[in-house]
Amino acid sequence: MNEISDDQMIALMQAMRTVAQAEIMPRFHALSATSIRTKTADDDLVTDADICAEAALARQLETILGDIAIVGEEAVSSDRTVLEHLRGHSPVAIIDPVDGTWNFAHGVPLFGSILAIVAGGQTIAGLIHYPCLDDFLVARPGRGAWHVGAGGKPTRIAVAVPSPTSNMHGFVPLHMYPAELQSRIAPRLGAFARTTTWRCSAFEYRMLATGAMSFCANAGLAPWDHAAGALIHAEAGGYAALLTQEPYCPTILNGILLAAPDRESWKQIRTALFEM
User: Per-residue pLDDT averaged across 43-51, rounded?
Assistant: First the structure.
């Protein structure tokens, strides 16, 4: 599998919509205390919606794409060896069933479902569904990035126009950085017009790819957070790379990924935030 067809993209969107309607939205504002659990930290949550949606979408993907390996966030949480699928040559579907679980569990409508189809270590399709809005951001290599409304109408999207760092708005999730790096970066945030984090890669990539925000400097490289969004951002005209200038790919699990409107903006942001 080297590419995803138009018919397959439509089927994948419908599958994500069906799973959201069956497994995610009925649980929004309706979770019991026993439906929410912690993973690696007190604020790293998993809910019944995450687990059931991942399993349901995996079944749908097997119907649409045949014999495809599944790398789901919740499956990896139980068994890290699942990540080894990313290093093979067979196609892989990377699933984040409910991205922004903390928001979801607390009744905040900033969450989404993320799906990336990867072949040969490269993302060949990226889809992000926003269940509360029932719309999508989607991309395939060389075909641009698109917003697909609830009614199915596609609209091309584009990243922000480059601007001086003092005018930039960006996402900097400081909590993801080592403590010593946090203390170095925090005083530098004043170089920008505004920085924040929304605890949700799905919505942060939405803001980047539609030009509402200029940049994101992320120290967490879980593939379910970035494989789809990085492709969508690139197809919307953006530039992203690790601070080492290495291009991002879903097999890279460590480092800092900086996404910006273009390469020159990327250099300016790296200098402002990280160069001593």
Answer: 82
